[in-house]
Amino acid sequence: MKIASANSFILRCFLVSLFLSLPFLLLLHLFSQPQPRHPPPSSTSITTITTAAGLKIRPGYTSYDAYIQHQLNKTLNPKLRKVWTTRDWNRKIPVFARFFQELKDKHLLHNASKALCIGARVGQEVEALRRVGVTDSIGIDLVPFPPLVVKGDFHNQPFDNDTFDFEFSNVFDHALYPHKFVAEIERTLKPNGICVLHVALSRRADKYSANDLFSVQPLVELFKNSRLLQVRNVDGFGLDTEVVFRKKIKQ
């Protein structure tokens, strides 16, 4: 009888001690679990980001500096720059001028428009705008080409809000951060201003492209403060689609 009583007492003591130790054991279990590792931003890959269905960032860039350097490898290539200022200069300016004249005919561009060409390299688009009468025109690129092109990163344009009436670009595919590319256009474009993009939908762009666009819909989603005006097929030196937006007027 005494043995049974002793065993019962020991069992009760064990159960009480177990109950009292449960919170400690639970905490010990939680803190002993392996914690997820978060690499520092500088080493985080930025190459697998997909911004929307139909728009994919290309792999290969480990940092923004690496992306910029890759773009500069093309922009600073002396052979390419010679081609851009000689053979391509005479070949492309008349084509750009025709595109811009058609936009003037549709009253989307005017002689009095203050115009910006984004990713203009040596300024062929700027020269074309000036030839059709839009004299207040300038371009931006990572490497300046005075007097037609000033230095600027299209992810962070060096201009004030509501500066331009018209912005044109055929380098959307070079944007590593498409949402920033578009946000900067909408920031620097005046209310009711026009943005025209030439993009490739039916074929993949060159090796310096940072994204691939598969439909117009991602652009519509990115231009949050603008209205889609028109989409048409063009033959723009490897780019097949012209997309036109008008920035909304704030209510």
From TrEMBL:
Domain of life: Eukaryota
A molecular-function term among this protein's GO annotations: S-adenosylmethionine-dependent methyltransferase activity
Domain Methyltransferase type: 116-197
Cross-referenced InterPro entries: Methyltransf_11 (IPR013216), SAM-dependent_MTases_sf (IPR029063)
Protein name as it appears in the record: Uncharacterized protein LOC107481601
Species annotation: Arachis duranensis (Wild peanut)
